[in-house]
Amino acid sequence: MTGANSFSVSGYGPQRAGWTRVFARDSLARRLDWPILLAALALSGIGSLLVFSATRNRTEINQGDPYYFLLRHFLNTGIGLGLMIATIWVGHRALRTAVPLFYGASVFLILMVLTPLGSTVNGAHSWIVLGGGFSLQPSEFVKITIILGMAMLLAARVDAGDKPYPDHRTVLQALGLAAVPMLVVMLMPDLGSVMVMVIIVLGVLLASGASNRWVFGLLGAGAAGAVAMWQLHVLDEYQIARFAAFANPSLDPAGVGYNTNQARIAIGSGGLTGSGLFHGSQTTGQFVPEQQTDFVFTVAGEELGFVGAGLIIVLMGVVLWRACRIARETTELYGTIVAAGIVAWFGFQSFENIGMTLGIMPVTGLPLPFVSYGGSSMFSVWVAVGLLQSIRVQRPMSA
Asked: How distant, in Å, are the alpha carbons of 123, 182, 255, 277 from that of 191?
């Protein structure tokens, strides 16, 4: 068929450029992992309701505006979505070349926390106050930097076809890259973030195909290091008190054990279907501290009950399931490692956050991904979703 209005499958003809753009958009929409995107949006939506319920009557922190935290949560989510789109647009492969720049910026920011510019929140000197009620927690972005940096080193020679798996020298380089920011974060001290980073490192090594001796060696070194820190009194008193309260829930119920006890009361009172949104007595009475951030899951347990709290876990499970599938189906080791690192990050941080509200994990001050209030956390998790989407979008059609 010929003529000015014809279009050929091979792409030749006067309308080639326009049709190419149309098909590119169709291809992008078709390749996106919609279950991850919809599940993450649902989590952020549920989180907005929980944050609003936890803060609308807190006049001492909401500046007299019941919608103060709700509007900021929406703003954080919107910025996070913009960062996700930008990450997909640039692509994880292009970001690979910029890893040294990101790494240097991340280390610089966490070092700034140790200067007078840093601020202490709940015992952790891990924030930079920007003014206007905004603050930045650089350790949230270090998680992404560690994943990208280790993936870049471990996958370089494998993806190039020079090696079937990372050799010992490459693993040492990757561990050294991760150790520098982790040590700085430990000095803050921000034990919760360090725990997440350790799990990320283990997940990355497992996905890279490196020798299992490295994983077992790190586990042994971690156990020895934990004992040494305890014996040498490296941990701050508030951190030791939190672990003591975890080991003995009845210890000082009006002091270090207060948060955990009140959290379990709130969740236990919700029953199957909860007391109803905005009608939780523990939440309305402001008995649980930091309920819009670290203990946001208690609002779900009390007001939405087992059904609502279970829905949050199911939605997070969807995100982890699809991320695992992306890691398995990509044809490049770099993409596999990045996706696996994100799975380790989201999986452990969610388990730790929910676990500490149930009393099965120590209180460490980690937010629940997508749900808790907080700009730094929201930005970083949506960038991670953008990385996952980029890995899926850029894979070959046959994968």
From this structure: 11, 10, 20, 33
Return the bridge partners of 314, or none: none
Sequence-ordered list of residues with C-beta below 8 angstroms from that of 35, at least 6 positions apart, any chain? 318, 321, 322
CB neighbours of 269 closer than 8 A, spacing ≥ 6?
Answer: 275, 280, 281, 282, 302
Least confident of 212-226, 244-258, 268-282, 339-353: 244-258
Strand 134-136, strand 124-131: pairing: antiparallel
The residue type at 358: L
pTM of structure: 0.87
Phi/psi for 118 (5° steps) reads -75, 155
- Can you read off the two tokens belonging to residue 392? 């899926």
Distance, CA of 28 to CA of 374 (rounded, Å): 30
pLDDT on residue 101: 93
Question: Taking a C-beta distance cutoff of 8 angstroms, is the pair 302, 270 a contact?
Answer: yes
| Cβ atoms of 36 and 26 closer than 8 Å | no
Can you tell me the distance from the alpha carbon of 325 to that of 364, in angstroms, rounded to the nearest whole number? 30
Buried b (16+ CB within 10 A) or exposed e, 237-259: eebebbbebbeeeeeeeeebbeb
Rounded to an integer, what distance in angstroms lies between the CA atom of residue 226 and that of residue 221? 9
Q: Is the pLDDT of residue 4 over 70?
A: no
The alpha-carbon radius of gyration of the chain (Å, integer) is 23
